[in-house]
Fold each of these.
Amino acid sequence: MLKLLNLSLLVLFPVAWFAPMANAGLLPWFGRTDISVITSISSLWETDVFLASLVAGFAIVAPTLKTLLLAAIHLGWLGSNMLDALAILAKLAMADIFLIALLIVMAKGVGIGQIETGWGIYLFTFCVMLSMLVTELTKKQMKAH
């Protein structure tokens, strides 16, 4: 069961990366823009390659690497001694959620235009939390054996 939950993240994370995390508009008549992880990285890449790389690392590389390493543990390709390292990767992905939430709060505080959270932020948060839960349950399962 844990193996299937973990492998489902290989599908859910990419959906979350393209899903709208926020919807922003300067004024009602200028239209609205959906903001996703991918569009954010793309926009950042044009102005700040370092920050774009950092966000890509937190949002894409860390969760994917963690999911793949956990799958390797479930399949017996890696030992359970790798589980502590996976906890660090999960925290990196949580840092990305914090940054997104902080940006939304800051944008709302400016008072110019509108920003609304999208379903993608909930999906991405769910994926990160599910990944952390599967890791913790895997740790308990490995200790029991």
Amino acid sequence: MGVNSNHTVEELGGTRCAIVEKNISQERADFLTAILTGNGYTVVCAEAAPAKAPKVAEPAEGEAPAAPVLSGPVLLNLGVTDILFNPINAVFGRLLKSSDGHFVTLAYWNQQSASSDDEKPYFLASGS
């Protein structure tokens, strides 16, 4: 394990990748893919391992077996092939640009803002 647990490298779809986010929805994966491919990164998206189902007690004699637990929505893991990529450094270091040419801010990355207001420092953006 690395010194910084925020920078993980795993194999997705047979390719070693720096993990950007894990267990995300398809909509979130599409949003991040658009940002990352627009900045020249090769994105790999793979289905996350399903969560372990809780153990169900064996039914007693004469009881009907419990209904199977339906799985939730499909979750994805998203990574880039550049294993030196770190999303925290990329956002706070202003290394990524949005499609309209502005730097990607934390609020834009987290989809809390529809546009990237890069004129305001990140440490002032959330308090106003």
